[in-house]
Amino acid sequence: MTDLASHERVRTLDFELRRRAASVIPGGMYGHMTVGALPDAHPQFYERAEGSRVWDVDGNEYVDFMCSFGPIILGYQHPKVEAAAAAQRAKGDTLPGPSESIVELAELLVERVAHAEWSMFAKNGTDATTVSLMVARAHTARSKVLAAAGAYHGSAPWATFRMEGTTPGDRANVHYYEFNDTASVERAIEQAGAQDIAAIIVSPFKHHAGFDQEMVDPAFARRLRELCDELGAALVMDEVRSGFRLNHGGSWEPLGVDPDLSAWSKGIANGYPIAAILGKAPYAEAASRIFVTGSFWFQAVPMAAAIATINALQDEDAVGTMERIGTRLRDGFDQLAREVGVPICQTGPVQMPNLSFPGDQEFAKAFVFSAAMHEQGVIVHPRHNWFLSAAHSDADVDRFLEAAEIGLRAVLESE
Ligand SMILES: Cc1ncc(COP(=O)(O)O)c(C=O)c1O
Fold first, then answer.
1. CA of 124 to the centre of ligand 1 (A)
2. What span, in angstroms and rounded, lies between the C-alpha atoms of 338 and 200?
């Protein structure tokens, strides 16, 4: 490992690849991983990763507090996950049907997640949320869905952030409420028509990109459950971003509120492509009636990786590690910001930190901070929550705090 702070960061190949990409990839890059609108210090292209560290294409090393936007939950190249994936790859990945691992993985998820009595698999979080809503609609024979305004549930036309390329009809059956606001849910029910509501979809806490995060009010969670029961609608939990980072089961289990269906992806296989739809028994029949599939949905390698990941998460107390490291980071960062004299706002669970600067117009301060952090060899995002993995260590937090002192001073100077 290099001395991250003193390492001179040359970025020749990254900019050369950006130039080439601009001719053959729309926009040069697209989706959540594009750095086009971020400071130049954010690399676009990466070469390799291990533990909590990543290397860009120019060989610069970073401590990564984004974990590839969440999938990396045990650290890059976790030995047990890699061994399980390699063993399965040696036998085959895409096969004429699923391998034994699909049954083992479904059994493991049913054992681990309290509300789960069955499981189906797909590839991405968008698949999982979309399939969950299809199951809810097939079960209820109703059309309407309530979702929190501003929440991200995927890039399908019913959910994507931008309207370009979609039609109003794509989301004609979606009505919106405000997270943690019961009265707004009741208004949305009235607007949608109680008789036609198939589901209320919700994330375990408010994690809209670009906003401070908000933990769920337990009374709100309980009221959503009651309303779904009164309506005969499914409570659908979007665990895609949060799954297994807050709890070794469902994120609302500590509250005693169970959804009927839940959508998972990102962290469940430590970076291997897989998503899961979990559900309560009464929804299994509808789930068996819908037609959903994909050429690569039944690949055996991601399933083997998922089994190894879910076992390692519990065996290694990953949630406990992320909480401990995350608490040190949050407390240390708060103290540092007070010392340097830059007001900051940290929100959400410590293992998924979100930083904002009060009154920051157009994320100007956040951009200065994230650019300085990258120059110091620390990856953070200026307007999206960060992610910890169980591979983050006390030394990584120390490194974060050293870099953050420089980042905060840069913010101070930019004012
Ligand atoms: C809460 C939530 N739901 C759904 C999705 C969509 O997942 P994917 O990008 O894997 O399709 C995401 C992705 O960031 C997410 O954060």
1. 7
2. 41
